[in-house]
UniProtKB/TrEMBL annotation:
Gene name as annotated: ileS
Motif ('HIGH' region): 59-69
EC nos: 6.1.1.5
Record text on subunit structure and interactions: Monomer.
Record's protein name: Isoleucine--tRNA ligase
UniProt-listed SUPFAM superfamilies: Anticodon-binding domain of a subclass of class I aminoacyl-tRNA synthetases, Nucleotidylyl transferase, ValRS/IleRS/LeuRS editing domain
């Protein structure tokens, strides 16, 4: 008759459930953190420590969070928490970008729906609507960021629209004004005719656009070479609307040009047999094909540098375009496509502008901010640049200048807000010079002294700084920091007076920058030192990238709990041309160095196939809220650290399922330890010196993990750390150590040294793992910590990473156990094969005979290999000659295994099959279990 010994077994007990229920539990944990004021507790505990300051790149306050926000903020939180637990004062102050076109555009949208004209609204009232809009979304986003588990000074964030911030932005711009770097000039800038403002590079995206292409004859008026007389220079352009702005033609000095005589053409061709035109020698065949020319001959070949001095007529000469069009050498002219000549419109292109100004050509104003030609533009006054192509073609046909036309789909700049195509347009703007005061040189030096992660970021931003033009810092909008500048009416020079700048900044700090728009602003700020009648007040606003580029000045420098420069800036890789870029230039221009010591970039989020970015139109959008309401924020946090965020990240439902599986592995590891630590006290702890080798091997592994954790935190390589921790939990613990020691923990006597050693190691393991996991799965780690350390004020998040004793590290032991585990793998493989063949059921029914080399058998001596292999008995033979049919595992040639059955009966308590079962005072148990049962009965 069998006896139920279940009550005598030390089965695990814990209140840490297998089913996480994160969606419901996480808000409760957040409320607890709020009650204990976790953020303030951390600040008080770390006061005086070395600081690690991650400066927050401000998100824009205009909508609910998307997955890009979640990726960015979670990664920041992981880094901040990890450095805090390393023993630093890692203070995180979140911030928001509030000024600029997206908010202004949204408010204007409301006006348009109501049939109102925005320009008729008082600017201060309009700006208040923008401010209220931003404040509302700050409140919404703040709660959503907190729901992700992000710890920071949410009660005192920074915003670019705060009065002190606006004041400091004015001071920073004033510094450029005072040192001579800020100037007013007219240059072509990227312009949105829809939004009626200049755009920064970071506000531009490229998308396919269909353009009308034209091949146009420029009649040669005067030439140094007789070969060029009675010819036309042919240009090709994808922007017909820029033809009214043409003032020159660019050629390549190293290009050979052909004088082509047309001998035959298709009936529908605009080419005329007998005419002569000039194009690059390498492009003759292509131009002839494009123009429908079926017969031609090359009359002459002219080296490009001999084109110097050639002057053409504008195609519309005699129709209001009666000025010379010189041929000018341009190093940007290529023969990749087109004709080898480039039409130069200095008001509509960067290369055009510099080539024209270098040769004294005035930059014409042809297009207004609304995309309409000015009234003084012949032939096209009042027409829209994006609708004028047919009229341009007709005008070219009328004068016989059009050689051919077509369509081209190509990558073209668009506004990332309105999605509308952009133009290059010459406008009066305020610029910060890249050369005055050696700004470019200082920025390049700062890049070299900054740590870039990944390292490729250094070259990327360096190439941008090397080639970038002067920084356009003015915008023709309403919602932003006004440019604190007065211009002298007579001289056109900006007023450089520090006292005036100080008065403006002080007023901005006290009242906000709305005071700039008051009627008395000019007299108030100029004071008695200057006659207000002599000056105009600039009505442009500061571009938002200057706003965010100045955050280091009004956040890092202004707060005692932070420091300048920041330890780290962290954003998406697009910010090499955005926030990293503007912060670098602003700081180098005012302080001579970068405002950061290191810069870390992450990739962007793609669908789970890795093919497309998330977009509503593709129907592949999953919001952070969708995930935390279904699976919990810890799943999102684990997705971030389990991904290689140095590249673009795949995201979708199937990937979330995989992350959920990984989460369950980690949670069950914590649950196993908590369950088997039930009732553990300090009195039970066993000194390391008295532990079996297996436990000392586990402690050795902890020293390796500790070293890796600290290195990965330094390297910001949390992907590698997660992979190692997950592998440790799945392979070293669940599939090895836990599996082996389950018998000792469940069935050994309570005071048995082996059981005490195992429970001591479980306690140590839990303490280390829960802390290492705390920055990753912050809710789950705190939940587990409270089970082990109950108390209202308890939290894992105010603890440091444990200091692992150096003497736990034992390289020889680690090497030995690597060999032992390889032997065990062969045994386990043999048992699996025997189980599949129905030769055994459970592994405890087996008695494997292992054939191995003498040194490997010696290494296993005294380790209790039956327990290690989870069998009832085992025989190791120092004999490499195994019987035929013995099991071998590929790659482990030194080990062979023959699986037999263990002798004896099955113990009803520990389930081992042993010869002595049934020979003791308690029925159906082995000698070990009989002693434990007797001891328990006596204690009762």
């Amino acid at each position: 008759m069998s006896v139920d010994y279940k009550k005598t077994v030390f089965l695990p007990r814990t209140d840490f459930p297998m089913k996480a229920g994160l969606a419901k539990k996480e808000p409760e944990i957040l409320a607890r953190w709020q009650r204990m004021d976790l953020y303030r507790r951390l600040r008080a505990q770390s006061k005086g420590r070395e600081k690690f300051i991650l400066h927050d790149g401000p998100p824009y306050a205009n909508g609910h969070l998307h997955m890009g926000h979640a990726l960015n903020k979670i990664l920041k939180d992981v880094i901040v928490r990890a450095h805090q637990m390393l023993g630093k004062d890692s203070n995180y102050v979140p911030g928001w970008d509030c000024h600029g076109l997206p908010i202004e555009w949204k408010i204007e949208e409301g006006y348009r729906k109501r049939g109102q004209d925005k320009d008729s609204v008082d600017p201060v009232a309009f700006r208040k609507e923008c401010r209220d809009f931003a404040e509302n979304w700050i409140d919404v986003q703040r709660e959503e960021f907190k729901r992700l588990g992000v710890i920071g000074d949410w009660d005192n964030p920074y915003t670019t629209m705060a009065f002190p911030a606006e004041a400091q932005i004015a001071r920073e711009l004033g510094a450029f004004l005072m040192n001579g770097s800020l100037y007013r000039g007219a240059k072509p800038v990227m312009w949105s005719v829809v939004e009626k403002t200049a755009l920064a590079d970071a506000e531009v995206e490229y998308a396919d656009h269909t353009s009308t292409t034209i091949w146009v004859r420029f009649p040669v008026h005067r030439a140094p070479l007789a070969e060029l007389e009675n010819t036309s220079v042919v240009i090709w352009t994808t922007t017909p609307w820029t033809m009214p702005g043409n003032r020159a033609v660019g050629y390549g000095e190293d290009v050979d040009y052909a004088v082509v005589r047309v001998t035959a053409a298709r009936e529908d061709s605009l080419a005329v047999p007998g005419e002569r035109f000039v194009v690059a020698r390498d492009l003759v065949e292509q131009v002839c094909a494009d123009a429908g020319i079926t017969g031609h001959e090359i009359a002459h070949v002219v080296p490009g540098r001999e084109m110097a001095g050639t002057v053409c007529h504008h195609p519309w000469h005699g129709k209001g375009y009666d000025f010379p069009v010189p041929l000018l050498p341009g190093d940007f002219v290529t023969t990749d496509q087109g004709t080898g000549f480039v039409h130069i419109a200095p008001g509509h292109g960067e290369d055009d502008y510099w080539l024209g100004t270098a040769h004294g050509i005035a930059v014409p104003d042809t297009v207004g901010g609304d995309g309409l030609y000015f009234h003084h533009v012949p032939l096209f006054a009042g027409q829209h640049v994006f609708k004028v192509a047919p009229a341009v073609l007709d005008a070219m046909r009328d004068v016989g200048a059009l050689l051919a036309h077509g369509k081209l789909v190509h990558s073209y700049p668009h506004s990332w807000r309105s999605k509308a195509p952009l133009i290059f347009r010459n406008t009066p703007q305020w610029f910060i010079s890249m050369e005055t005061n050696d700004l470019r040189k200082k920025a390049l030096a700062a890049i070299e002294s900054t740590r870039w992660v990944p390292a490729a970021g250094r070259n990327r931003i360096g190439s941008m700084i090397e080639s970038r033009p002067d920084w356009c810092v003015s915008r023709q909008r309403s919602w932003g920091v006004p440019m604190p500048i007065f211009v002298h009416k007579a001289s056109g020079e900006p007023l450089r007076d520090q006292a005036v700048l100080d008065r403006i900044a002080d007023a901005f700090e006290a009242e906000g920058s709305d005071c700039w728009f008051h009627a008395d602003a000019k007299a108030r700020f100029l004071g008695s030192d200057h006659n207000p009648d002599d000056y105009d007040k600039v009505t442009d606003i500061v571009e938002v990238w200057f706003d965010s580029g100045s955050t280091h000045a009004f956040v890092l420098e202004a707060r005692d709990d932070l420091q300048w420069p920041a330890s780290l800036y962290l954003e998406g890789s697009d910010q090499h041309r955005g926030w990293f870029h503007s912060s670098l230039l602003e700081s180098c221009g005012t302080r001579g160095r970068a405002p950061y010591e290191a810069v870390l970039t992450h990739g962007f989020i793609l669908d789970e196939k890795g093919e497309d970015k998330m977009s509503k139109s593709k129907g592949n959008v999953i919001s952070p809220k969708d995930v935390w309401e279904d699976m919990g924020a810890d799943i999102l946090r684990l997705w971030v650290v389990s991904s290689d965020y140095s590249n673009d990240l795949r995201f979708g439902k199937s990937i979330l399922k995989q992350v959920g599986d990984s989460y369950r592995r980690l949670r069950n590891t914590l649950r196993y330890m908590l369950g088997n630590l039930d009732g553990f006290t300090e009195a039970e702890r066993l000194p390391v010196a008295e532990m079996p080798e297996l436990e000392r091997w586990v402690l050795h592994r902890l020293t390796e993990l500790d070293a890796m954790a600290r290195q990965c935190i330094h390297d910001f390589d949390f992907h590698a750390l997660f992979q190692e921790l997950h592998h440790f939990c799945a392979n070293d613990l669940s599939a090895f150590y836990f599996d082996i020691r389950k018998d000792a923990i469940y069935c050994d006597a309570a005071d048995d040294p082996r059981r005490r050693a195992a429970r001591t190691v479980l306690d140590t393991l839990f303490d280390h793992l829960v802390r290492w996991l705390a920055p990753f799965i912050s809710f789950t780690a705190d939940e587990a910590w409270l089970i082990r350390h109950p108390g209202e004020d308890e939290t894992v998040h105010d603890k440091l990473f444990p200091t692992v004793p150096a003497d736990w590290r034992d390289e020889a032991l680690g090497a030995k156990w690597a060999r032992v585990r390889r032997l065990r793998r062969v045994v386990t493989g043999a048992l699996e094969k025997a189980r599949a063949a129905k030769e055994i059921g459970a592994s405890l029914q087996a008695h494997p005979v292992v054939y191995a080399t003498a040194d490997l058998v010696a290494a296993c001596e005294g380790l209790g290999m039956a327990d290690l292999c989870i069998v009832s008995d085992i025989t190791l033979k120092a004999d490499e000659t195994a019987p035929d049919g013995a099991f071998r595992l590929e790659g482990e040639d030194a080990v062979a295994v023959v699986v037999g059955l263990a002798e004896g009966e099955k113990c009803q308590r520990c389930w081992k099959v042993l010869p002595d079962v049934g020979t003791h005072s308690h029925d159906g148990v082995c000698g070990r279990c009989d002693g434990v049962v007797a001891t328990q009965a006596a204690a009762e």
